[in-house]
Amino acid sequence: MSASEGMAKCDLLVIGGGSGGLACAKEAANFGAKVVLVDYVLPSVRGTCWGIGGTCLNVGCIPKKLMHHSALLGLCLKDAKHFGWSVSEEVKFNWKTLRDNIAEQINCTRTAILEELQASGIEYINGQACFQDKNTIMVNMKDQSMRLIQADKVVVAVGMRPKYPDVPGAREYAISSDDIFSLETPPGKTLVVGAGFVGMECASYLLSLGFPVTLMTRSPPLQRLDKQMVSLVMRDMADAGLRILSGGLTTSLCKTPEGTIEVKWEDLDKKLSSETFDTVFYSIGREVDIEHLCLDHIGVKTSASGKIVVDLQTDQTSLDNIFSIGDCAAGVPELAPVAQMSGKLLAGRLFGQKKLHMDYKNIPTCLFTTLEYSSVGLSEEKAIELYGEDGVQVHHMYYVPTEFTLAKRDSSKCYLKVISSTEIEKNTVLGVHFAGLNAGEIIQGFACAVKCGLTLDQLLSTVGVHPTVAQEFTKLRVRKGDGPCPGLPDYFG
Fold first, then answer.
1. DSSP assignment of 172-212
2. What is the pLDDT of residues 275-290, one digit of tens each?
3. Candidates 69, 82, 297, 466; catalytic one
C-alpha cells in the first residue's frame, strides 16, 4: 500500500529482521498480535548485501562457525592416519567450495525464515523505516514507493555494523566482517586489524585454512575476558604461525601495481613501517547506524555512543510505546542469543501477560578460535575486584584430551579453572572457564548450573562422564597458589 492509498495498522511493528527482531515478532504473533516486520540491509562499505536474518545468520555467527568447523576438519585430517585412516598426502583446501556451500546454506535458512513468517501471519516488508511520530512509520520501499504504518507498539532491533578507521584508503581497499565470508577469491596473505572476538576468530580460521595471517592490535586482545585464558589462546595461535604486531596503528592503505595492498603503520614509539598484503580486514568494533530512523525527530534518547537508551528491565525507550532490544540498545551485551531472549520475553510482557524480564547476569560465551575458549560468570580479575583476594578461591588444572593422545597433539594449553567464593557454607561458583575441545558445548550445561547457584562442593561431588574433557571439572582439587598445577593425563579416572 502506498502512502497515498491510506495507512496500514498493526499491534506491533518490529524494525529489524535479525535474531532479536525475529524472535520478538514470532512470539508476539503466537500471542495473537497483528505484527508487521520491516527489514532493510544497507550494503557494506565494499558493496556486500544480504537478506533477512541479521548479522548472525548472514555475516556473523553462522558462517563463522562453519568456517571454524572447516578449519578443525583440516586438523582432523592431519590426525586421521594415527587413528587408522589412510588419507592421501595431497590434501587441498578450496575457498570457493566452502564459500559457495555456506552461501547456499544461508539462502536456504533465509527462505525458511520467510516461510515461517508467512505461516505465522506476520507481514514482512523489505524497506527502510523512518518515524513520522511515535506511532506512525514511513517505509521507503526499493521501488521508491512509500508505505505508512500505524502501530500501537514499536520495537527497534536494527543491530550494529562494522566500524572503519579514518585512515586514507581504508574504505576503498579494506574489508570488514560484512565481506569476509563472500570474497570472490581466497584472502591470501591477510592483515587482521583488531583483536576483539571477530578479529581473533577470523584470524584463527584463516590461519588454520592455510593463509598467512598477521594480527595488528593497538590494545591488549579481548580485554573483557579472563587474562590468563586469553594468554593461552594467544600462545596457541602464535604457535600455529600467527604473526602479532602489538601496538600497531595503520596510517594509510593504497593499491600497488601488482594488485596487492600496501599498508603503512606506526608503532607505539611512532616508528613507521610498511608491508603489502592481499587482504586487509578491519575488526575494530561496531557502531549503530540509526540516522535513517529519525529517532531524534520524535524524542527518543540516545547515548553518547549513539545507541538507544533503554530501561534494562523493560526495554522501553524514552517514549512509552517504543522499545529497543539487541545490539542497538545501550548497556546490553552484544550477543545474538541475548537479543533473541530479550525479544521473546518482551513480546511475552507486551502481549502474553507474562512478567519475565531479561537477566543479564552469568551469560555464557565462547570464542571459536582453534583452541576454543568458553566461560560463564566472572573473570578471575573481576572476581578479585568485587570480592577481594581473600574472598575468592580458584581451582584449576591442565588436562590431556584422549583425542589428542594418538596423534600426540599439543595439549599444553588445554586448561580449566573454576572461581568460587571462599565462604565455607556457600562457596558459590562465580566463574567457570574452559579452553579446549567443544568449549561452547561444554559451557552451556555449566551456565545453567551457575544460574541455579552452583557451589564448588556440588561440582566436585558430581560424577563425571568418562572419558570426556568435561569430566575434568569434577577433578578440581588444587587451589591456585597452593602448589603446582596438575596436568598429567589420567585416562582411568
1. HH-B-TTTGGG-SS---SEEEE--SHHHHHHHHHHHHTT--
2. 999 999 999 999 998 9
3. 466
